[in-house]
Write a structure and sequence with these properties.
- The protein is an alpha/beta fold and 645 residues long.
- It contains 22 helices and 19 strands.
- The chain has an eight-stranded parallel beta sheet with strand order 1-12-4-11-10-5-9-6.
- Strand 7 and strand 8 form a beta hairpin.
- The longest helix has 36 residues.
- The chain starts with a helix and ends with a helix.
- It binds adenosine-5'-triphosphate.
- The site of adenosine-5'-triphosphate has 18 residues, from helix 9.
- It catalyses: ATP + H2O = ADP + phosphate + H(+).
Length: 645
Amino acid sequence: MALFHVARYSDPKAGSAEAEAEGEAGARGRARALLERLQCRARERQQLRQPETAVQSAEPAGRRRRRRRPRRRRRPSGSASQSPDARRAKRRKADGEDANPGSSETAPGTRAERAEAQPTPGERPPEEGAEPQARGPVLGGFTRRKAPKVQPFLPLWLAEPRGVRRNVTEDLTPIEAIPEVHPDLQKQLRAHGISSYFPVQAAVIPALLESAAGGFLIGKGGYPPSDLCVSAPTGSGKTLAFVIPVVQALLHRVVCHIRALVMLPTKELAQQVSKVFNIYTDATPLRVALVTGQKSLAKEQESLVQKTADGYRCLADIVVATPGRLVDHIDQTPGFSLQQLRFLVIDEADRMIDSMHQSWLPRVVAAAFHSGDPVDPCALLQRRQPQAVTARSTCYPQMPLQKLLFSATLTQNPEKLQQLGLYQPRLFSTGLAHKGLKDKDVEVDEDLGEKYTFPVGLTHHYVPCSLSSKPLAVLRLVLGMNFSRTLCFTNSRDSSHRLFLLVQAFGGVNVAEFSSRYGPGQRKKILKQFEQGKIQLLISTDATARGIDVQGVELVVNFDAPQYLRTYVHRVGRTARAGKTGQAFTLLLKVQEKKFLRMLAEAGVPELVRCEISSELLQPLVPRYEEALSQLERTVKEEQKLKAV
Ligand SMILES: Nc1ncnc2c1ncn2[C@@H]1O[C@H](COP(=O)(O)OP(=O)(O)OP(=O)(O)O)[C@@H](O)[C@H]1O
């Protein structure tokens, strides 16, 4: 660089023909002189810097030297005959180290370092064991200090939720105690055997009705209503907690528009929720549409919009949908409008946040607020995203979009919740453990401070098993307990299928499987048969783990241990619903036991009962089981052949 600099600028006459030869020789000489001067200065600077580095530990200096040493080429002969020790000693010698670390010659550090360590006359020698005084800041340290524990910082609404009792059998609120609920809806509730509200319903229904008191327009003082988040155990009646107030808020609508959109992760769940809406809208002019892809797009379009002479007419007030299909309608259904949307209900909210990569929420919000179009300042009814309330903003009637989130395992992670763009949210929760993180390194999802509540009537068991005895253990549990409905979960559809074939070959149990191997129609049929009690054992993937409400499931068996706490909560929540009792058994391999038990302890599972199934109990099943195993082998081979064809 210096050479380049010198050659370029040293001779102002460069370019003149006569001076060229002479100038070139002169320039080279000057350049060399300048280079030498630069090198000399660099050496001086290095020497000045050396005493400073010398006070640092001698060991890193040694390491630095070793790193700088150029790589030697391995000698083809001679060196091979040397022992590794001799080679190491030689290398150390070449590095300036002595093979004998005890000798005075071998004191680590350079000469400058050693000189630094010597006390100067008049200076007190350093006390024995005292650390050398560093002149400048020394990077790193000699003492390991424990890093302070990081505490989660939750926004106030998350840290201090409104508490809801989790026990649905105590302190129930009679239907008459909430007179705000429309008499017709009260009548419907009674007609369906509901005489009192569960705690989550008693807390959420009045809050929602109050926020909808302004009809479809902005609430008190010009403020949009708060968004609501509800976290309550499985089977605690969250569905009715949103169905009743949504139906009531829309009861007096004049023109049919989509005013409530309920989002669910699976077709089966959407179907279940739309059934509940149908019950409570039956005697009203309100219409419910199911948009899940179970029917063709054209058929669904027919249930949503009708072409008229002057445009399109909306045919649904409440749409229950899965994300993918909803986006299809936003894109492809002419006349499909969400511009009058008042309620956006997100059930199984934590799962729906996970499916946000489908970007269904921004699409819904954009469709509701007609983003992109400029707001007509003269329009009677204005629709803007929540913003600061000003005198001007209160001049026009505005229609808010209120988001309602429900889950048994609602995330406490503010970053995840932020994706939903909640407005002044309020949390209703049965879990009180929102403060403090788990302190062990258990892999309990990635969410913060997760502690979930379980139904009171649920008892948790685990069965230590070997891999080969797991199917026998399931058979023993099912045959021994003889419940009319048992749900058994596996971690994959292949695992479900094999277990199904094995149990079928064993005989004596009415068994079926439920997984993505079957189409929506077949799955619907299987669930119906299970509900009717025609299937005693349903072997399923996690497709039925969430939200599915089948009355009379008394036993849940985790054939494969769930990987995540959330999965466990939802799986075992298929039993002990609505205040009933139920049992959950998890089969655990030896290697899984420790981690699983820690995970549940973290989750605050009240009591986990160890349940050994002795070999004497399994022995009588073994001969039939072995026959079933060979039958399974034959069936699998046939299936593989068929697949290949
Ligand atoms: N007040 C009530 N009285 C009696 N039964 C009720 C009441 N509310 C709801 N149920 C019944 O409780 C069962 C569970 O309700 P729901 O499916 O709403 O639970 P959930 O909290 O949504 O559960 P999950 O988190 O598993 O989805 C349903 O069969 C429902 O009919």
